[in-house]
Each structure stands twice: as structure tokens, then as C-alpha cells.
TrEMBL record:
Gene3D superfamilies: Periplasmic binding protein-like II (3.40.190.10). Residues 1-22 form the signal peptide. This is Extracellular solute-binding protein. Keywords: Cell membrane, Lipoprotein, Membrane, Palmitate, Signal. It comes from the Bacteria. InterPro entries: Bact_solute-bd_prot1, SBP. The keyword Signal applies. The keyword Membrane applies. It holds the Pfam family SBP_bac_1.
């Protein structure tokens, strides 16, 4: 449910008592006094030196290469402010952030998925910027993406992009199998159609598989993606229904688990699927070991093009044993006659606070830094590298002069999927969201690994999830159908 929210203009000076507390994780002069209680504004206060810290993973292939330039450009725009960026890998991003959060000294800004907002909000470590984000900042955004950065009445940062987690196909293999990928891009496909299609992509040499029809990364940081993406088009667009019942106790969830297992039993997916991580999945795609891969983002088209160029140039840095691939964006199939609902990923620059209340000045500075990273030139450069759609007017303007080489059919397919993306759910209370995340981490992810490895049945996994949901939400807090 989307809610309209009035956003106040940015306040650079506020009337604060002399006992105002220092800002969280600001490496500024924590004891610096704020403007006098008389209400007189102070230009010295707003121009005071301050440092804003940011923990950032490799958002795009060249993103971290630009950190020094980002820091310099921000300081040029705000001479009194310093942006200090700490790099992290995707693999250790969560651990680094959690360690800092648990110590009570998180970075001012961290790049995370919007689905992680409820987790940190429950811990009381997020900074609500509703009263600090200016009208110009808010109005720069497309409306839908910004909703994902809200929880309840709070706004907790700025989104970097709004993209769809889709599937990706090898054009040559799809056409050789007689699969009309252009029609699928426009009209979608059902699970039964998808199941039969990926059977056609399998190539065997005796009992040995030379190519699978479909491979999805399910190990490591990708462990939660598979079910979450498929569930959207299986009648569960959110983990909670509109009346806040936990959705994964629905009969559709059990049937979805059976379908997940069925694709492996068909021989269309590897038996060792539970051990395939993102890197292995992409390697298998580029080396012709699968016809369709997932999850797929628009940037994969760019990555495939770059590897093709290396192959043409006989560059030794091309992926070993890789072949030339034309990457085709494909939608996730629909299940049980349910409508197509795309899994939309909205990641962005989430604002944090420490144990102490941040000063108004530092809060305003954090907002400037988060908006700087999420808009204009930085966003245009990053999203072009990702082949992601621009979601701010300022980034769209900057991108006009940037060259990008994308297949028109893929651009249109992504736009079609975005048109039926799952809506943001800022109405889900922090407490419920945190409980759902706990079930996902402690039950769903490990049980899915066991299901994929054929160590448990779909019924076993469904029972484990339902039992955990009843314990967390009560009998009246879950879907019964």
C-alpha cells in the first residue's frame, strides 16, 4: 500500500538545547555546539566541517573504480564536507554492516536492498530523513522507487535503481530449440510452457550432461533469491497479504516447492544445484552449459557483450572456454493461473544513526551525501554500467550524453516487466518484517538447500516453514487456504 507523505524542506539550522547529542558515526567534532537556543541561525554551523561515512559494495562492474572521483566531486560541491567511502564485497557486506551496527557505530550510509530496512529499523539504527530530504530531492525521483525506501511513516534513504530480477537466455540456443523468445518477452509464459521449453535445451552425451535447460544460482548470498522471485508470480506478491497474514503458509507455496523439485527431477537442472553460486552460474552460461540462467539483471547483457568483444580480440582475459552469447531477457513463468508479478529489486543508499541522536547539521549533511550518490552523474554512470533504468530526472539528463549499447527487445522486455512489478509495502510493520526475515534466514534458506539436494521433500520443507510461521505469528497471523 502506497501512502503519500508530506516531506518538509531541508533545515540547515534548528533551535537545539545546549545539551544536544553528537551525531552517529560522524567523524566530525562531536562536541561542537549547535546553534543557540534563542533560535538565531548560524552560517558557521551550517558551514562547519563534517565527514560522512559510506559502506559501499561493487554495485556495478566499474563502480568501486570511481570511489576516489566520487569523493573528490562531492567535496568540490560541498567544500566543508568530506565523503569517506569504505569498500566492501557483496559477500562480506552484510557481515561488515552488522558488526558495525551491533557495535552501535554504523556508517552514515550503507548500500543495501530495501528489503533490509525493516531489519535495521527494528534495531533502532536507521535515520529517518523525512524532515531533512528537500522537496527538490524528493521530486527528482520517479514515485514508485522512492516508496521502497519507506517503512511506516519514515523515509530511510534514497534508491539507486529499480530493476527486475528476471531470467536470461542464450539467443542461439533458444532459437535452435524452436523457442519464440520474442513472443515470451511480450506475452510471458506459464510454468508448464517453461518446463517443456527447458527440456528442449538439454544436451546429453550418453549419461553426461553437456548442457542444461536452466540453471539458477542458489548458494551463498543468492540462497534466498530463487523462491522469492518465483513466488511473486505464484500468487504471493509479498511475504505478507494485504491484511498482514504471512503468505508462505499458502497451499501455493507447497505447490511451488514441488515444481522447484520437479525441474531437477526432469533433468533440466543440475542435481548439484544447491552448490551453484552466482559466479558458477554465470560461468556455466558463458561456456554454453545452460540455455537459460537466473537470476538475471539487465547488466548481464553488458557483461556478455564485453566477453564477446574479448573473444573477438582473442583477449586472454575472456572467460575460459566461453562462447559468444547474445543475452536475451526473459520473464519468470507464472504458476497456477496467477498473474505475472515481477520481483522488483530496489537497492539504495540507506541512512543510519548510532546510539546517539545525530545533530540536525550532520543529518542534513548525510542527506546531501546520500542524494549525491543516488542521483545525477553518479547514478547515471552507475546505472548505465548496469544497463539499469534511470529513476531520477537528474540522472536521465546526465545520461543523455552517455553512450549505451542495448538490444531494443531487451529494453522493451524490461519495461514490460516493470509495468507489473510487485508494489512496495511500507505498510508492513517493522516487527512483522523482522520476524519474516528471521524465518527466511533460519528456516527457508537452509531447508531450500536440503530440498534442492534431495535430502528432504517439499512437504517436509513446507511443514517446517509453517511451524515456524505459527510460532512467530500465531494461528491467526498466517494464510490458511
Amino acid at each position: 500500500m502506497k501512502r503519500k507523505m508530506r516531506v518538509a524542506s531541508l533545515i540547515l539550522a534548528l533551535t537545539l538545547s545546549a545539551g544536544s547529542l553528537a551525531a552517529c558515526s560522524s567523524k566530525n567534532d562531536g562536541g561542537t555546539a549547535s546553534p543557540a537556543a534563542s533560535g538565531a541561525s548560524s552560517s558557521a554551523a551550517s558551514d562547519a566541517k563534517d565527514t560522512i561515512t559510506a559502506l559501499l559494495p561493487p554495485v556495478s562492474p566499474t563502480y568501486q573504480d570511481n570511489f576516489k572521483q566520487m569523493e573528490a566531486d562531492f567535496n568540490k560541491q560541498y567544500p566543508n564536507l568530506t565523503l569517506k567511502i569504505e569498500p566492501a564485497s557483496w559477500e562480506d557486506m552484510t557481515q561488515k554492516l552488522d558488526t558495525q551496527v551491533n557495535a552501535g557505530s554504523p556508517p552514515d550510509i550503507a548500500f543495501i536492498g530495501s528489503d533490509g530496512i525493516s531489519k535495521y529499523a527494528q534495531q533502532g539504527m536507521l535515520m529517518d530523513i523525512t524532515d531533512s530530504a528537500t522537496t527538490d530531492m524528493v521530486e527528482d525521483y520517479d514515485k514508485a522507487p522512492l516508496e521502497y525506501m519507506k517503512n511506516g511513516k519514515g523515509l530511510y534513504g534514497f534508491p539507486a535503481y529499480m530493476e527486475v530480477h528476471a531470467l536470461g537466455g542464450n539467443k542461439q540456443f533458444l532459437e535452435a530449440a524452436g523457442i519464440d523468445w520474442k513472443s515470451i518477452q511480450k506475452n510471458g509464459w506459464t510454468y508448464d510452457q517453461f518446463r517443456e521449453a527447458i527440456k528442449k535445451g538439454v544436451v546429453k552425451d550418453g549419461d553426461n550432461y553437456k548442457r542444461y535447460g536452466f540453471v539458477f544460482a542458489t548458494a551463498g548470498v543468492t540462497g534466498k533469491d530463487y523462491l522469492n522471485i518465483l513466488a511473486k508470480s505464484a500468487g504471493m506478491p509479498s511475504v505478507f497479504t494485504q491484511d498482514l497474514k504471512y503468505a508462505y503458509t499458502s497451499k501455493n507455496f507447497l505447490e511451488l516447492l514441488k515444481d522447484v523439485r520437479q525441474l531437477i527431477d526432469d533433468g533440466s537442472m543440475p542435481k548439484e544445484l544447491s552448490s551453484i553460486d552466482g559466479g558458477k552460474r554465470w560461468n556455466m552460461f558463458l561456456t554454453g552449459q545452460t540455455m537459460i540462467t537466473g537470476k538475471g539483471l539487465a547488466t548481464f547483457e553488458n557483461s556478455a557483450k564485453k566477453n564477446n568483444a574479448k573473444l573477438d580480440a582473442k583477449d586472454a582475459s575472456a572467460v575460459k572456454d566461453s562462447i559468444k552469447v547474445d543475452y536475451i531477457v526473459l520473464p519468470v513463468p507464472t504458476f497456477f493461473g496467477q498473474p505475472a508479478v515481477s520481483y522488483t529489486v530496489v537497492d539504495g543508499y540507506v541512512t543510519f544513526r548510532g546510539k546517539k541522536e545525530p545533530t540536525a547539521e550532520h543529518k542534513a549533511n548525510v542527506v546531501k551525501a546520500a542524494y549525491f550518490l543516488a542521483s545525477g552523474k553518479v547514478a547515471a554512470t552507475t546505472n548505465n554500467d548496469l544497463f539499469a533504468a534511470h529513476i531520477t530526472k537528474s540522472a536521465k539528463k546526465e545520461a543523455e550524453s552517455m553512450k549505451i549499447d542495448r538490444m531494443p527487445e531487451n529494453v522493451e522486455a524490461v519495461q514490460t516487466m516493470l509495468s507489473h512489478a510487485a508494489p512496495a509495502r511500507p505498510d508492513i510493520p517493522v516487527e512483522l518484517g523482522a520476524k519474516a526475515t528471521k524465518i527466511e534466514t533460519e528456516v527457508i534458506v537452509p531447508k531450500l538447500q536440503a530440498l534442492l539436494a534431495n535430502e528432504i521433500s517439499p512437504d517436509d520443507m513446507y511443514k517446517a516453514v509453517k511451524d515456524a510461521a505459527v510460532e512467530a505469528f500465531g494461528e491467526d497471523g498466517i494464510v490458511k487456504d
